[in-house]
Design goal:
- The structure is a homodimer of 224-residue chains.
- Chain A is an alpha/beta fold and 224 residues long.
- In chain A, a hairpin with a 2-residue loop joins strand 6 and strand 7.
- The first copy, chain A, is globular.
- The mean pLDDT of chain A is 96.
- The interface between A and B is large, with 42 and 42 residues.
């Protein structure tokens, strides 16, 4: 439900990874209709299956990416960065005019560990907006730990920055984040700053590999 | 004092801003000899003067950048990013072979607020290493709030990521961070990841401007 209690249909592009599944199950449990998409419908169904009891009683189904985009009111992009340029152009039609929440981090891992990928557009989120020129793109959920989302017996106590140039997109991403119990959304300004959250995720990954932990970022001393 | 209780002479390049003054006074209070440098020696003296009672009983003096580098065991670079390419080449000689802790964020502010500057070398820290090819560069203290450092009556309860390719540089930056009461240093891997902390600082700045706060980043659920 959004802040008005209305149900939103949320489509996930590439929702089979931990972050996609985690956000999908939390938003389904919040009362939304969720279409978890994959290039391969069987893989999408398996990802939903894997959620098991956590998705009980929710309206969460595995579909193709195309179907997820066609039926969605709002779409989430949760594919690895390396897949974005290939996956999105074909979905630009069904996503036209819709809010798209880009959760993609422009990072990759090489033999020295995680690294930040230099994106010509500036950030994965700006590239997403370029590829989906007729959509309203926000960026969020970069540093959110999937394990907190998937642990549905507990609150997902964490922060997410929300970036957008488009106000309806910012509002939609902010409200959906707030639908997840424990999560705090922080309005962090224009889409171009998404690079900060994306690059910080590479740092977090490196820290977690070094320390053998699953730490995450919090913003301290924030009061409105 | 470092972990062995030894006094280090720390020179600040461009130490007159809030972060430079904050780190300088905290490290001086930890027992180190601190040379707070500026292009203009009078400006350096005024910055020390401004610290007033907070620097009482410490060995903290205002000097030129050249003098700060020549006499330092370890140097801190705390200039705005826009000044780095101009300031550092002339200091490469006196800084040769020494540990240099780069605290520079590759960010700037335009009419839309803070933004991340794309650095050809990858990050301000990597550019610093390129400009000071014979020095051992670490990067740290990017997201540390100057106000916590300058409030010497209280602990500076905050986290800093430490990045380095050079092990002695990493160790020196880590230990100096730990000399500041309340500060936690986090080993975050190679210098190339400094871009993550630098870019995250632009996000924090934007959040603080929007919310009228002075929030900072903490790493949660980190245990060795």
């Amino acid at each position: 439900m959004d802040s008005d209690g209305a149900q939103t249909t949320i489509g996930f592009v590439g929702g089979t990874g931990p972050l996609g599944r985690g956000l999908a199950v939390r938003l389904a449990r919040a009362g939304h209709r969720v279409l978890l998409g994959s290039r391969d419908e069987g893989k999408a169904a398996a990802a939903v299956e894997k959620l098991g009891e956590r998705a009980a009683g929710t309206d969460l189904v595995g579909v193709t990416n195309e179907r997820a985009c066609a039926d969605a009111d709002v779409a989430f992009v949760t594919i690895p960065y390396t897949g974005q340029r290939q996956a999105l152009p074909a979905l630009a039609g069904p996503l036209g005019g819709k809010v798209v929440v880009c959760c993609v981090n422009a990072i990759e891992v090489d033999d020295r560990g995680p690294k930040v990928v230099r994106v010509p557009a500036g950030s994965a989120a700006e590239e997403c907006q370029d590829l989906l020129a007729r959509s309203r793109v926000a960026a969020a959920f970069h540093t959110v730990p999937a394990r907190l989302l998937l642990d549905v017996g507990n609150q997902a106590d964490c922060d997410t920055f929300v970036f957008a140039d488009d106000e309806p997109a910012r509002k939609a991403a902010f409200e959906l984040a707030t639908d997840i119990p424990g999560m705090r959304a922080i309005d962090a300004g224009p889409l171009r700053l998404s690079v900060g959250a994306e690059a910080a995720t590479a740092v977090l990954l490196a820290v977690n590999l070094r320390y053998g932990t699953r730490a995450h970022l919090r913003v301290e001393d924030l009061e409105r």
